[in-house]
Design goal:
Peptidase_M20_dimer; ArgE/DapE; elongated; metal-binding; Probable succinyl-diaminopimelate desuccinylase; four-stranded antiparallel sheet; EC 3.5.1.18; six-stranded mixed sheet
């Protein structure tokens, strides 16, 4: 059956669909009329309806929709989810590109354009895999859900809404369609976005002792956070797929409000921390340890006053190699490529983070080098994209087999 189904993959249509998607400027820009997810979502919804799928078009907020499509085999069985987002990051300066960022130019076996590999090529691969399965009339059980959300590149409101509406209930496994060179990523780092502030008292730069300098207090705090990072690395070690956890100050502001002046001691200093976690760490424990650091610094210095605010967090994920969805993708990879799969991890976060939190086993895989997204001259290799489509197709057949 598998070879017969693979023959229904239309490679020319896969390329055409990828290029059509890349040409749609689905950069989320609230101020611009020509760049939003709605155009991409309407195009995809129409395409999936023509395929004969049951399509749901759900606005998360005005102008920012999710598209959900179902292929139901009308026999009891497992539910497989393919997830790929419609939004892309900004193209930046178009002059930095060798091609039109939204031209979907084909050259030397590649398709160029913003989103070509992150992740419109992989969205096209998932759609093409489902299209082949449907056209073949494959005798499967259960159902396939295509989840095509908005805002993966932002605060991930699309996937959160998908889960909130109950779509993730009963899903037995999910393939997160992201550029990973078709490696099987079975872990993802967690993330905490934290704001810390130190408070002082304004003073003239010529008479600093009449004030309280929040900047020097922030310097002490950041040194203590660096020590916390080292302790956590010693405690949990280097993860085989994710590497080391980290606590990284990425933004410093002083003063927090108003304009800085070289001859004024400010009243506040703020640091933004990008904290990346790995299995073995607990976010609540990290938060408590950071609060203890503030308390200890306050005991050492009666003028030390600080606050901490966790503004967003995403848990780390880890899926066992023996989980059914991982086994299905691994077996599909072997059959398509003739090679053993390479297991890896995602250093950032994807929508799969929240699916995992909702209890769905996930594996992240797709065409494209992970170092290409968000750069000028983003591209996807056409041969690799075809390989991805075959892997997605066979993985679905194996996962939903009636045997």
């Amino acid at each position: 059956m598998e070879e017969a189904v693979l023959r229904f993959i239309d490679e020319d249509e896969l390329i055409r669909l990828t290029r059509e998607l890349v040409r749609i400027k689905s950069v989320y820009r609230p101020e611009a009329e020509d760049g939003n997810e709605e155009r991409a979502a309407r195009f995809v919804a129409g395409y999936l309806r023509k395929m004969g799928l049951q399509v749901h078009y759900e606005e998360v907020v005005p102008g920012r929709p999710n598209v959900i499509a179902l292929l139901d085999f009308r026999r009891p069985g497992k539910t497989l989810l393919f997830e790929a987002h419609t939004d892309v990051v900004t193209e930046g300066d178009p002059e930095a590109w060798s091609h039109d960022p939204f031209g979907a130019v084909m050259e030397n076996g590649r398709i160029y354009g913003r989103g070509a590999c992150d992740t419109k090529g992989n969205l096209a691969a998932a759609i093409s895999a489902v299209r082949a399965i449907k056209r073949s009339g494959a005798d499967l059980a259960g159902k396939i859900i295509l989840c095509i959300p908005c805002d993966e590149e932002g605060m991930m409101i699309g996937i959160k809404d998908f889960i909130r509406r109950g779509w993730a209930r009963g899903v037995d496994g999910a393939i997160i369609c992201e550029p990973e060179e078709n490696q099987l990523c079975i872990a993802q780092k967690g993330a905490m976005r934290v704001l810390v502030r130190t408070y002082g008292k304004m003073a003239h730069g010529a008479m600093p002792l009449t004030g309280i300098n929040p900047n020097t207090r922030m310097a002490r705090l950041l040194l203590e956070l660096e020590k916390l990072e080292r302790r956590e690395r010693e405690r949990v070690g280097e993860h085989p797929y994710l590497g080391w956890p980290s606590i990284t100050p990425t933004i410093l502001r002083s003063p927090v409000k108003g304009e800085p002046q070289i001859n004024v001691v400010p009243d506040q200093c703020e640091a933004a921390l990008d904290i990346r976690t790995v299995p073995g760490q607990e976010h609540e424990s990290l938060r408590r340890q950071m609060e203890e650091i503030l308390d200890d610094l306050g005991k050492e210095d009666p003028h030390f006053k600080a606050s901490i605010e966790v503004i967003e967090e995403r848990p780390w994920t880890e899926t066992d190699k023996e989980n059914g969805i991982v086994v299905a993708v691994a077996d599909a990879y072997r059959e398509v490529t003739g090679r053993e799969p390479v297991y890896n991890g995602v250093p950032g976060a994807t929508d799969g983070t929240f699916l995992h939190l909702a209890g769905v086993p996930i594996v992240t895989t797709g065409a494209g080098d992970r170092h290409i997204p968000h750069h000028a001259d983003e591209y996807v290799e056409i041969d690799e994209l075809i390989e991805t489509t075959k892997i997605y197709c066979l993985a679905a057949l194996k996962f939903l087999s009636r045997d």
